[in-house]
Design brief:
380 residues; alpha+beta; 4-stranded mixed sheet; 4-stranded antiparallel sheet; 10 strands; 15% strand
Length: 380
């Protein structure tokens, strides 16, 4: 089915992204996978190409467009290229809205130009060793010391954790307040007491640096409070719909790409003297996956348009997230199976997609959390 949500401007941007991938990312990606981290230079290259801060106002060096469809194009092309390690979506679509929507004018002028140029790489530190989706379990504290915050605690599984120059930390500022006593505190590279632990060894997305972070009595200036004191819960809930839609966009793009390469593979691969595509079971497998992808694509595209118009709610974002990522997981598994032994070889894209994509049903809120959100909305 012909997609109808993009204009000529979006199509031109897609070509820009593809050129960037071909020139700046793919020639180096294998080395980045070995290194466990991408280069600082590619972030600067992304800034020069206008791929950072798409929604940031032009006065701060950004693209000045709130149209989410540009972010969707960026996500789709990086997914199809098999290059999730350069986490532009995290930077643009998850952390960007906190800075543009909550920062004071002084904070915007201090942080956004570097955010858009690639000189400032960002991360958000929410997950802790004992607290994932449960915000009430957060133990990191930020104590008001008059002219500064005294930050103490640790975080784990933090994407961009090694490279990040600016980390938005979720911390308790009112200990007895539970989830309603949390604030967003911005910690900058070089701050005394801020230490990075291991670059964690994951089964997939090897070039995406994911780290442990430690805050040992870190003195953070009072002016680094982002948004309202004790307002983090509302701030986080406000931006989660976009984060989850972004994961869903990558999920359906991955499933479609896996279907494409597997369809081509079964046409070329022979068994028992004929092409695999001549076997009825293979045709049924492809037919089922193609149908599921087509139906999912229609829903996700509707969500993209609704979000661009400011109409996407948390429930439909949760539907998109769990459905598209679970579909991605099923398609990756079935496509690997159809590749046979070759599917288990890391030189084949299907093997890498299998391991890279497995996290999709976990981060940004697990499938189980998504179903809980939807169920509560229907049965309240």
């Amino acid at each position: 089915m012909q997609r109808q949500i993009f204009s000529e401007d979006h199509d031109a941007f897609r070509e820009t992204v593809r050129t960037f991938l071909t020139k700046e990312v793919l020639p180096h990606y294998e080395q980045w996978e070995k290194d466990g981290i991408v280069s600082r230079e590619v972030w600067l290259a992304a800034g020069r190409q206008g791929l950072l801060g798409l929604a940031v106002p032009e006065e701060y060096g950004g693209g000045g467009t709130p149209d989410y469809r540009y972010s969707a194009v960026l996500s789709e092309e990086f997914t199809r290229a098999g290059a999730p390690g350069l986490a532009l979506g995290l930077h643009n679509d998850i952390i960007g809205p906190y800075l543009t929507g909550l920062a004071t004018e002084e904070q915007k002028r201090r942080w956004l130009p570097g955010f858009c140029s690639g000189e400032i790489v960002t991360a958000i530190a929410m997950t802790e060793p004992g607290a994932g989706s449960d915000l009430q379990g957060i133990r990191t504290t930020a104590e008001d010391k008059g002219d500064h915050w005294l930050l103490g605690g640790s975080k784990t599984f933090i994407s961009n954790g090694i490279l990040a120059d600016l980390v938005v930390v979720v911390a308790k500022t009112t200990p007895e307040g539970g989830a309603k006593g949390l604030s967003l505190i911005v910690v900058e590279r070089g701050t005394e007491g801020f230490e990075r632990g291991r670059n964690l060894d994951k089964i997939g997305q090897k070039s995406q640096d994911t780290a442990e972070l430690f805050f040992n009595d870190v003195r953070v200036p009072k002016e680094n409070l982002l948004g309202e004191r004790d307002g983090a819960f509302i701030h986080l809930m406000t931006n989660l719909a976009q984060e989850r839609l972004g994961i869903a966009v990558a999920g359906i793009a991955a499933a479609e790409h896996l279907l494409e390469i597997t369809t081509q593979y079964v046409k070329e691969r022979e068994a028992f003297g004929r092409s695999l595509s001549k076997l009825q079971h293979i045709r049924f497998e492809i037919a089922e996956m193609a149908t599921e992808c087509a139906v999912t694509r229609t829903f996700i595209d509707r969500c993209i348009v609704d979000h661009s118009d400011g109409k996407l709610d948390a429930v439909h974002a949760s539907m998109a997230k769990w459905w598209a990522t679970e579909l991605q997981k099923r398609v990756a598994d079935r496509c690997l199976q159809l590749h046979g032994g070759y599917g288990y070889m890391t030189e084949y894209p299907v093997a890498k997609a299998f391991t890279d994509g497995r996290i999709q049903t976990i981060y940004g809120g697990t499938t189980e959390i998504m179903k809980e959100i939807i169920g509560r909305s229907l049965l309240a």
